[in-house]
Amino acid sequence: LYLRDFQRLRDVYGPSRAEREARIGGILYDEHDVEARIAQLAHQLIQAWDGKAARERGQRPLLVGVGSGSDRFLASLGANLRDLGVAVNLDRVALTSIGAGSEPSRVRVSRPPAASLTGRSVTLVQEVLSTGLSATFLSGWLRRHGASSVETCALLDREAARVVDVPVVCRGFAVPDVVLAGFGLARRNQFRDLPYIAKIETD
Q1: Are 124 and 157 in contact (CB under 8 A)?
Q2: How confident is the model over 124-166, as pLDDT tens digits?
Q3: Cβ–Cβ under 8 Å, residues 139 and 164
Q4: DSSP per-residue letters across 12-43
Q5: What is the β-pairing status of strands 106-111 and 121-129?
Q6: Which of 195, 168, 173, 170 is nearest to 182 (CA)?
Q7: Whether the predicted pLDDT of 202 surpasses 90
Q8: In Å, how far are 31, 177, 179, 192, 193 from 24, measured between CA atoms?
Q9: Terminal-to-terminal C-alpha distance of the chain
Q10: How many Å apart are CA 133 and CA 96, to the nearest integer?
């Protein structure tokens, strides 16, 4: 059974009982853990940016959140950087898959960043970095639209799920390849507003 066939069956018959009855399992990182780690990531980014050509030309660092799930992480990271005296630009990019029937899905940028990318060093901000395919696609897209360099900062890194190598400038927590939610990360539109990051279990 191919993934596209499974998705088509699920669209017809609806989600399984297990999918409907998701619940919070163990908390992996509580609110204090998350906020403290983001503060550390802000320091790491400043060290990574030190001496870069973009800073020398007086341009503010550009942080681009990937999808709506990154909003909370992006806002917290930006606030920590500003508290440390570093002015940054925050923006967001969104991806969508297109394709129908037996045709393979293709990815396109459905919401491009509003900021000018020309000559900018861009840091992609992702809530979860898994296969690396989205980050790789976006890196190429951003470079084609003028970015001088692209790197990734991830709050959660599922390195075991990696398919392609991604230049990661900093990462918050190494996590197992399981379903997670909280701190902006949703599971079927649930649990996004949790202040912590938890494992999601199903019956």
Answers
A1: no
A2: 999 999 999 999 999 999 999 999 999 999 999 999 999 999 9
A3: no
A4: HH---HHHHT-EEEEEEE-HHHHHHHHHHHHH
A5: unpaired
A6: 195
A7: no
A8: 15, 16, 10, 12, 13
A9: 23
A10: 13
Q: Which two tokens stand for residue 174?
A: 């190494």
Which DSSP letter does residue 112 get?
Answer: -
Q: Is 12 exposed, middle or buried (0-12, 13-18, 19+ CB in 10 A)?
A: exposed
Answer whether 0.85 is exceeded by the pTM: no
Task: Find out whether 114 and 97 touch, Cβ atoms under 8 Å.
Answer: no
Residue pLDDT, tens place only, 34-89: 999 999 999 999 999 886 654 545 678 999 999 998 999 999 999 999 999 999 99
List, in order, residues 6 or more apart from 91 with CB less than 8 Å away: 62, 63, 64, 65, 113, 114, 115
Pick the closest to residue 126 from 152, 108, 151, 147 (CA basis): 152
